[in-house]
Amino acid sequence: MIILLYISVGFLIYTSIIFGMNLIDFKALRDTIVPDVLNKPKISICIPARDEEDVIERCVTSALKQNYPNFEVLVLDDQSTDGTTEILRELSGIINNLVHIEGKPKPNDWLGKPWACHQLSEAATGDILFFIDADVWLEEDVIPKAVTELSTADAITVWPEQIVESFWEKQVIPLVYFALFTLLPAKYVELAPKWLPASLRSKLAPRFAAACGQFIAFNKKAYKKINGHESVKNQIIEDVELAKQIKSSGLRLKMLHGAESVYCRMYSNHKDLWNGLRKNFFVGFNKSILFFLMIAVVHLIVFIAPIITFAYGFQINSSELLIWSSFSLFLIIAQRALLNFIFKW
Question: Is the model's pTM score more than 0.70?
């Protein structure tokens, strides 16, 4: 039993080191300083939407309010069956730089979101393409800050501040960010680790790729170089695959978080939450049952075993079990508390 605690503490020390690195390197978009530049590139904010009547107006309105002089907003209505179409027709009828696009039928070899984003990219006229989901909304200075970040990168991705209200949202959604902050050093997303042999850096760079499709942006030349969403037309987790394409092509990807600037509420009830996770969960393990089982065992040892051993140590009055299990529980709680503080969960 004590061996399990040694493993748990060792793993948590390792993830705490990564968490500490990310507190420094995983920067907030809100902290970006926008220089006073006269020539600002035209940007296109691209929003795919299907049955989004509850959120589409908020998303589009926040995009249109950006403190940026040269941009267009394009919304692709992907054959919605609710009130999305009527809302977009009304908005586009009174707003000049809002383009309402009616989606074409999806070819058999494409998935829905890549196909919608591909159509948006074909219609966009900007030098920079922003893709945001319909359940995302932005502070007014997000686009100028993101454009500034893109001046030193070929693509950026921003992990929004997730708004969680229901019990299950609060339990499940933060776990994605918990894994992100404790397992992947953000600086390695942008630059390959220096400790890797030079001959392996370009080959292994895609291993450190990550992205959030809720907010991802490309310089148009980089987007075309990787063949855009057509290169991921049949991928369920298309955002991560796009990140891998960027890294594989020798291009530069930046990853930031959107606390206090970019917001999203992914699911508003437990049914939508379950359906969304069911669609993406197994794909996140590369569809490998073995990999899934390995991760499950690690989680049992790291996060569940300390609770059991603490109770058992208390029962048999074992100071050794109590000390090691308490240390594990302290690290778990400290990591989660810091993450909750950053994103106000």
Answer: yes
